Amino acid sequence: MKRSLIPSIVLMSGAACANAANMDAPAIFTQEDSVALSTAKKKISAWERLHIGGYGEVAMSRNFYSDNYLRYTVPERYAGGSHGRFDLPHVVIYLGYDFGKGWSFASEIEFEHGGLESAVEIETEEAGEYETEVERGGEVALEQFYIQKEFFPQLKLRAGMQVVPVGATNAHHEPNQFFGVYRPEGENTIMPCTWHEIGISLSGRAGKWGYFAMFLPGLDSERFGNQTWIHDGSASPFEFKIANNYAFAGRVDNYSVKGLRIGVSGYVGNSFRNTLYPTSSEKNDGIRGTVTILSADLKYEGYNWLVRGGIDWGHLGDAAHISKFNISMSKNSTSKRQEVASDAVAAGIEAGYDIFGIIPKMRNKNQKFYIFGRYDYYDSMAKMESSTPLEWCGRQKVTAGINWMPIPQIIVKADYTYGILAKKYNNEPAVNLGIAYVGWFK
């Protein structure tokens, strides 16, 4: 069998793609395809059943605002300033194997910021003290590892560490799935990103519809915060994930219109008591901390245009009680010891035009050059149950830039961003440069 046929076979079998939620490329699976696939699989060697790929990002930023930890507390003192950063936001290795008869496994090993998942941070809420943050137990971020049984294209059963496809960014988080140098800021702030949990899921594709349903452990309200809402609630500082509470997540995508994908997704689960910290007292009776998230997103590609957008709304029940509980925790705990909002929102849209699409010579070389613009709005403290929200947690962000793809696997990015805060705070402009790759090695 020709090697060029192998990627297509793997995609149909579901073994090669570690990012299971990315269903942007619709396909019609016929009975003839099934016969051809069964015949072809018999000819694939053990080496050809192994699949290796990944993606990686290199980024440089110059931020034209102060990075002092008091810049929101006393903004008048820090009206100027400038600082730069070099970073490796994400370097990911995909590894998968097709065992045959519908059985496969997929894995994704991620190195964030070029190191281990621990960092020294200056804590704004603790007088600017240096503090070591353990973001997740273990030394390597195993973002995905699951075993899958495909019964047919409409039904796949998975068990293991998987991406929770809630929101546009979690479902489509590779560097070629967004225009900016960095992932869209709204969803990346208020929700875990990339959100991955150990769970059991069902997924599949039937005609113009795709679906994903997942049973997973609940979030940990002890780790919620003001600026990040529930973002850190999926992490665990232990060598295991506590599952005193359970949750459900789901996603449905439709491809009825050529070039257009419309998706809706959601999550619901309790978060209080999903910790080792004692919570058995009368004052905690009836407290559940139910997290509910609703999200809608779209992507359109046609006539040299590429448009993506999404909106998210989240609600936390018992937010006032959880805020008091977290603030009262020991300074040595993993809690941020901050107030947390009952509601958070995020919305964003980006549009780019491929100018190489109107130049036959460049189009024939399969090159793309997008000029794009993006707008984001998000507020991690959109609504409070019993106190006043921090105004600087709500902001807008305007981005403009370019994406050049000299070959399909490489993306060179440059953008200018302007963060717009409430009037009494200082706005946050920045220039960002980056280069990334996404591809399969075999």
Characterise the protein shown here:
It is a single chain. By secondary structure, the protein is mainly β. The protein is about 10% helix and about 45% strand. It contains 7 helices and 19 strands. A hairpin with a 2-residue loop joins β7 and β8.
Beta-strand share of residues: over 45%
Strand order of the largest sheet: 1-3-4-7-8-9-10-11-12-13-14-15-16-17-18-19
Helix content: 10-25%
Helix/strand order, N-terminal first: HHHEEEEEEEEHHEEEEEEHEHEEEE
The average pLDDT is 88
| Biggest sheet details | 16 strands, antiparallel, barrel
Task: Indicate the radius of gyration in whole angstroms.
Answer: 22 Å
Low-confidence residue ranges: 1-23, 25-31
Primary descriptors:
about 450 residues; 16-stranded antiparallel barrel; single chain; 7 helices
How would the blueprint of this fold be written?
Blueprint: H1 6-13, H2 31-42, H3 46-49, E1 50-63, E2 83-87, E3 90-100, E4 103-112, E5 118-123, E6 129-134, E7 141-152, E8 155-163, H4 168-171, H5 185-190, E9 196-206, E10 209-217, E11 246-254, E12 260-270, E13 290-302, E14 305-316, H6 319-327, E15 343-354, H7 360-364, E16 368-383, E17 394-405, E18 410-420, E19 428-440
